[in-house]
Amino acid sequence: MFAAVDLGSNSFRMHIGSYEGSSIRVLKSARDPIRLAAGLDQHGNLTDEAMQRACACLARFKEILAEYPIDAVRVVATNTVRIAKNAADFLPAAEAAIGLPIEVISGEEEGRLIYMGVSNALAIPAERRLVIDIGGGSTEIILGRGHEIVKVESFPIGTVKHSANFFPDGRITVEGFEAAILTVRSLLEDATPAYQPEFWRNAYGSSGTVRAISDALYKNGFGDAEVTLEKLLALRDYCIQRGQIDDLNLSGIKTERVAMVIGGLAILIGLFQELNIRILHPIEAGLRTGVMWDLYLRSTKRDRRELAVHDFLDLFRADVGRAKLVADMAGSLYQQLKPANDKLNHYVHWSSLLHEVGMVISHTSYHKHGSYLVENADIPGFTTREQKLMSRLVLSQKGNLRKVGEGFVDLDFAKAVLAMRLAVSFMHARVELDYKDFSLKMKSKIELELKADWVSLHPTVAIWLRKEIECWREIGVDFVVRAGT
Q: Using an 8 Å Cβ cutoff, are 304 and 380 in contact?
């Protein structure tokens, strides 16, 4: 059983589901219209009131989660938390409220998860499709074929700001709609050639916004549930005629969602016109479904992060043989150090694979460039927090250890750094590790015991170890090397 919690810009939502046969069946859903994006002040900070509403909602979600035997949960935050200047103040309180870590995902990662949910729900192999998702703070456009994503982009266009900017005080005018639609088109026009109908067969709308607009069209006499430009323009004209959001009488749309739907309507018309969409099919699946599918795949050891790391190696032309050698040695060394748990195992492996990606920029400072690339690049499947962790490991693989800062407060992190550094050193010294030849421990100090003839068999290791002893001594950690029998 899996659970996905989505901290959206408009609403916080949760799905609890189980994998059955070839699909994930949703057993429980919850939604709370937090309006987080509306809680950003003029300086881009979340207000105290908005943060309190968010934490109260997450505490309620925690109670619901406790009622189910859940195997894995992911809590993801989207655009508003991505851009909030005081997100670092909000996240600890939010994590305490729900009792789980919160992953702030990039717009592109959000798009990939959305597509994963849609493609698994449709289960139409090899279908070339366009998927759009209009959220409270951003809009994602994804081009795919079957389960494969061809292209994904995220645009900072959301229903909350669009409604506030172009329909102030709830006024609906011709000028407001025209400006709202043209703004969307202007933000999309450079990207749209890649998403034209020649590249896809069917188009799908995955967001609650699209489904709400579809309901409004069908339940208010504008036609069936399929969304076309003609119907959207008719709904626009009706809204202009009414003149005020409070005066709209749209069956099927809750009163509190009407303003968001009007902003979404303008965005959707802009998308239709710029992407030349003829028909858009609303679909229930989306981000939360995609998160649950991602959890399921991880549970079956089909973690797409592994593929993303290897794609990253190819992109930056890293030496795969050296990368795998370091990753294997670092993993073995880390296990010999007996970490308290296995939470860093994957990150030691992936960081070791990526340790030389910075070589494409510089052979002398490759660890610094690699660290920057790993932290700032778009690596599918990884959260911002995960990439920062791997970036620190890549940075710490050589040179002084002062740059790691307070990271060594976590002993397991210190063990991960030690394992990576020794693996890199042994790789350079062309050592083929036989783990019967040495013993490695780390508590208050580092203890490395080697067979007496080991250094003579690998003469350059002595140089690497002397450098390593000095680096650890500089941060107050003794590194003792002994020769055994």
A: yes
Both tokens assigned to 130? 């366009």
- pLDDT at position 485 is 62
450 located within any domain? no
pLDDT at 484: 67
Within this chain, do residues 319 and 416 fall inside the same structural domain, yes or no?
yes
Global pTM reads: 0.83
Work out the end-to-end distance of the chain between its first and last CA atoms, rounded to an integer number of angstroms. Answer: 52
pLDDT (tens digit per residue) in 426-462: 888 887 777 677 789 999 899 998 877 777 777 788 8
Residue 221's domain comprises 108-289
DSSP state of 113: H
Is the Cβ–Cβ distance between 142 and 149 less than 8 Å?
yes
For the sheet with 148-155, list strands across it: 148-155, 139-145, 128-134, 202-205, 280-282
Whether residues 268 and 216 share a domain: the answer is yes
Element (H, E) at 29: strand 23-32
Residue 466 lies in a domain: no
Parallel/antiparallel/unpaired status of strands 12-20 and 23-32: antiparallel
Q: Write down which residue in 262, 289, 316 finishes a domain.
A: 289
Say if 296 falls within a structural domain. no
Contact 205, 133 (CB under 8 A): yes
